[in-house]
Amino acid sequence: RAVGVAPDVPRKTTSRSTAADSSRASPLKISLAPADTRGMAPRAYRSAGLVRSLALLWTFLIASAVILAVGAIVLSSVLSQSFKTQALDDSARDLSLYADTVLSPALVRRNRVVVRKPAVRRLRRLVRSPGDVTAISVWTRGGKLVFSTARRRRAAKPSEAVRAVFRTRKPRAEITDVATKPGGSQRTERAVVVWSPLLSSKRRAVGVAEVALRASVLDTSIAAARRAVWIAVGIVFAVLWLALALLVRGASARLSRQNDAFQARSRELLDSTRQLEESLLETIETLNAAVEARDP
Fold first, then answer.
1. How confident is the model over 37-41, as a mean pLDDT?
2. What is the pTM of this model?
3. I need a labelling partner for 5 at 20 to 30 A (CA). Which of 14, 37, 76, 131 fits?
């Protein structure tokens, strides 16, 4: 060997027989994993979610009906009470006008109340007439009952309403029970009582006229107004609840349609995935057959 010349290194070669042997490939053995459908919720789960959503919607509708009913009752009660108060104020104002134009000229002399026989006869005729007035009583500023068409003792004490009218010089009215007979075992009847001041020429309250009216006068108007209020409020709140019901129904129908469309798309996706898997399996089987056919 010459100096400086590297020795021959045997090279790794592959014979044709080896290459031929390597060309004999074994059949393809590929196992396909099942399609991953974990991202899609099961149908039962979707149905349960839809049922819960619809249940919440209808629960909201029922709760709205209860709230609207309570609101209608409260609003109607408040309006009815307001109308009752207004009706009593109107009665007090009307009787105050009657006291200023009729009772004060007949009963007030200078700065005191003087009840004379012509005035007594006139007041008794007024009570006996088929009108709404059932009793008239007259109180002085000192708290003395000087005249009454009802059966009341002369020593009767004035009520708080009489004292309040003396203090404020403004009429007031309320629905109360009025005694029809004197004594310990009194019989009472329901009436609208109006207390109106008797004013002197100097606009000083020298007495109070207590006038009792039949309660039916006020009850009829209050009942009619209350009925109208209930009907109006009921109609308004019923229309509002029907609008909510239509909205809830539309929302539930839309949810149902969306759920049906989602389920249809899910089924289509599952079918396409199954078809793709079958197509891949058929392709693999064809390749395996082709490889086995080439094997001598």
1. 46
2. 0.56
3. 14
